[in-house]
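Running this now, will post back.
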Amino acid sequence: MGSVAYISRVRVERIRGPLRRAYLPAEDGPVVFGVHSAVAEHYGVPAGGEAERATTLDYIVAAAAGWLTGTFGGALEARHVPASEGRLESDATGEIELEDGVLVIKRIHVRYRLRIAPDIDRMIAFCPTSVYSVGTVHGFLLSALMRAIRGACG
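Update: finished.
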C-alpha cells in the first residue's frame, strides 16, 4: 500500500429529511444536497419545495467527470495542445439503477468537446477518430468518449 498523499476532511450535517449540508475543503460556504426527479420519487419526497436540490449522486457524477476532464486536459496540454480557458468541456451522464431497493450508480459516461485552432495540424490525427477510455473506481464503470473537434469534424 502506498503512503497517504492527501486527507480530505468533509463534515456533513443532516438538516431534515433528504436535506444535507456538506462542508468541503477550500470552499467558503457549504454545499446543500437534496433530491429531485426520479430520486425524489424513489424516496417518496414531493416535487418542489426546499428539498429539490442536486443529489449526492449528481455530485459523484460531477466529481468523476471533473477528474476525467482534468486528466484528459492535462494529457493534451502535456502534448502542447491547449485545453484550458473553455477549450475543453465535458458532459456527463450517470446511470443509476435500482438494486434491492437501493439506488446504485452503475455507469458514468463522459463526452468531451475540444475547441482547437485550425492551425494545429497535429490534432488532425484525433479527427474524426474517437478514443474510448474505460476504467473503474470502487466498482463504478467509467466510460469516457474522447473526441477532439476541429472545424469540419464537428
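The radius of gyration is 19 Å. More later if anyone needs it.
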